[in-house]
Amino acid sequence: xTDARRPLYPEIAPYRVGRLRVSDLHExxxxxxxxxxxxxxxxxxxGPGGGISPFLRRSxxxxxxxxxxxxxxxxxxxxxAGELRDNTTWDLVADIExxxxxxxxxxxxxxxxxxxxxxxxxxxxxxxxRVTELILRGIFTLRQAELAWFYQQGAGxxxxxxxxxxxxxxxxxxxxxxxxxxHRRLTGPAGPARRHAASAWAGWEGAALSLMPSPARExxxxxxxxxxxxxxxxxxxxxNRGWLDHDGWLIAQAHRLRAIPGVIIQxxxxxxxxxxxxxxxxxxxxxxxxxxxxxxGHTGMEPGIQDAMVRASDxxxxxxxxxxxxxxxxxxxxxxxxxxx
Length: 341
Known about the structure:
The chain has 341 residues and is an alpha/beta fold. The protein is 35% helix and 15% strand. The chain is built from eleven helices and eight strands. The protein has an eight-stranded mixed β-sheet with strand order 1-2-4-3-5-6-7-8, with helices on both faces. A hairpin with a 5-residue loop joins strand 1 and strand 2. Helix 1 crosses helix 2, helix 6 runs antiparallel to helix 7 and helix 6 packs across helix 8. The two termini are 31 Å apart. The C terminus is likely disordered.
């Protein structure tokens, strides 16, 4: 039997790249792909701290969408790299709005996976009139139970060998609160101890992203060039619980999204952000379509997740013929930023 699943759209490079200063300290890298006259969509990367991944450009039809991506504060090609000052969830929400205004976009579709789903929800709650639809995958809402599952006890029972490598930099006496223990090391002086902690933190995430093991992906996550910035930003956010008002705040506020069309895509065997959170979000936002992918983990590269993302974006695309002026599908020398989730 032929697999009827839809793959991602073919690889595409930006037709425009740019930089936007959003504070005295931070400058963002952004890019636009697809059709300059198409329906605007902003795609939010994971992490926090992951940076743009080339596959994120491919979930939307480049003939029908104007696809906007950017590296969040401290991530990817945004500067200063790995900077924790003035770097909070609400700073990032303000950055999304600043980018929308900079690009002259009235309203746009907002898409995010993993941490990107968290940020998309926060943006939609702060700026609902600017959101045409939400497409979310691998749902994460920063509840204490979600953080404890992955970083303290839970997922490590499924992947004990990888979790042992994550535990290794932390002495037994500090293991009662692993996020706090890592935070001390990742915000401490630069040097071998901080680099070792960063590689262990990032390597644990790289090991758990997919149902299929990938030594190459794990090596990329543990690479010091990526791991230190990624781990520092991610742990900074999680140690501060995302600067949300209280535990469970996003789920409690989700009823305010009910006028926004949405799709919630969740891998059944997602070890990083388990399906319980997607179900809780859907209970609070029942108008959204919930898609549980029965043979998928966390990463957006899982075949079932790819299929669901493409079908969701196609369903929301503008009807009729694409605009006459088409963006080039390849830009020599365009940036290809380090893979994230």
